Amino acid sequence: QVQLVESGGGLVQPGGSLRLSCAASGSITFRFSAMGWYRQAPGKQRELVARITTGGTTKYADSVKGRFTISRDNAKNTMYLRMTSLQPEDTAVYYCNTAPQTIAIGTPGQHDSWGQGTQVTVSS
Questions:
Q1: Contact at 8 Å (CB) between 22 and 4?
Q2: Which residue in 53, 74, 93, 109 could disulfide with 103, CB within 3.0 to 4.6 Å?
Q3: Cα dihedral across residues 118, 121, 98, 65: positive or negative
Q4: Residues 22-79: pLDDT tens digits?
């Protein structure tokens, strides 16, 4: 239904910052869908770490609260994740996708398709 393209990842030192972007095709689907950022670390399950509703209400996993900020620009069909004070445990592939309220923070939900994701590596 939508095509998702994540970008902005990279290698940063602990304490560093990154801003991820998610470009989504299908304006109607994007505009009327709650969206979120998921991440999957090696050996771990993919988890929803941040959600933003169509109205702009946000929710975060405890592990990222206070450090990550999710936002969206419906006119550009784009979503963002500003990450600060990055730590090694934030190392993961980050994905964007729909994130309805039925998907609990910390869980992968169920999705028919995913984008390529963008790698975030936090290491000294």
A1: yes
A2: 109
A3: negative
A4: 999 877 678 899 999 999 999 999 999 999 999 999 999 999 999 999 999 999 999 9
